[in-house]
Amino acid sequence: MQPPKEDGFWTVRAFLPVLTACVAAVLLTACEDREERIERLQIDADTIEELSLEAQRSANDGRMAEAARLLDEIDRQFPTSPEAPRALVLAGRYYFEGQEYELATAILSRFIRDHGGHPDIAYAYYLRGVSSYRSVSDVDKDEGDTANAENHLLAVITQFSGTDYALDAGVKLNAIKNQRAAKELVTGKFYHHRREYMAALNRYQNIVSDYQDSTYVEEALYRIIEVYRTLGLNSEAKNTAVLLGHNFPDSQWYYKAYEIVEGPLPDHIEGSGGSFWGNLNPFG
Questions:
Q1: Alpha-carbon distance 127 to 134, whole Å?
Q2: Residue 169 neighbours by CB under 8 Å, 6+ apart
């Protein structure tokens, strides 16, 4: 004898495994259909709208690289359409948002090469520059990639001077130069510690000549003075200390340079305030 059917509970419970299996099958089929549809669209789409809609779905679901690839197909499959150029820019944006910075740089470079007169050209230059900048934020990044990032940012500054794009590109370009100066300083200190003084001196001098706006110039000048003193080049050490004092009169590296070139600071200088230091050049 079956238990009573209370509000259909027994019926639902009896069919629950079947319903669960059906739902799972539908979900699996939907997933397979989506993957197959995307694969088909990337080979031979019927219309631009198909690619655009599927790219939007992918972006909405957070699959940014997939969305970018679908938009790239608009340019590949419908290259003469008016939608193709903008699809490339949007693909670059999606790659950027997906942190695929090298892919973003590549596709935006293609847009810049092929569509120089497009209304979105300034934005494409800027987004390419920022993508390159993000890709080299790693200190250990290849030197060639860093040079490319500098060139891409410099292109924004020269091509679109006076715009917000150029202003931000300038800030990022300085950050890259500061990073390169830091690498030169670390390398110089490595050679310095190994008593390879000429190799160290070359690295320190590179900072002073090539990265004059970096925050590492003061220390680089001081390290140059240290090397000169070690090599017995006292006149060169003093001249460099004068240069350090002239450009950075309130720098602690300037005070340290005085001590290694002239000896301990005089008592009346040590007890003076910062404003006095700012007007003082103890090297005369």
A1: 10
A2: 126, 129, 130, 153, 154, 156, 157
Of the candidates 266, 264, 252, which has an alpha carbon nearest to the alpha carbon of residue 221?
252
* Mean pLDDT score of the chain: 83
Among 82, 79, 81, 59, smallest CA distance to 70 is for 59
Please tell me the pTM assigned to this model. Answer: 0.72
Instruction: Estimate to the nearest angstrom the gap between the alpha carbon of 199 and the chain centroid.
Output: 29
Counted domains in the chain:
2
Of the candidates 177, 175, 174, 153, the one whose C-alpha atom is nearest the C-alpha of residue 165 is 153
- Two structure tokens written together for 123: 């934005």
Query: In this structure, are 50 and 151 located in the same domain?
Result: yes
Is the pLDDT at 24 greater than 50? The verdict is no
What pLDDT, on a 0 to 100 scale, did the predictor assign at position 138? 54
Does 219 map to a domain? yes
Q: Are 160 and 125 in contact (CB under 8 A)?
A: yes
Distance between CA 56 and CA 269 in Å, rounded? 68
Beta-carbon neighbour count of residue 223 at 10 Å? Answer: 23
What is the domain extent for residue 64?
A: 46-161
| pLDDT, mean of residues 13-29 | 44
Question: Average of pLDDT values for 111-124?
Answer: 96
135, 41, 230, 127: which is closest to 222 by C-alpha?
230
For 197-209, the pLDDT digits (tens) are 999 999 999 999 9
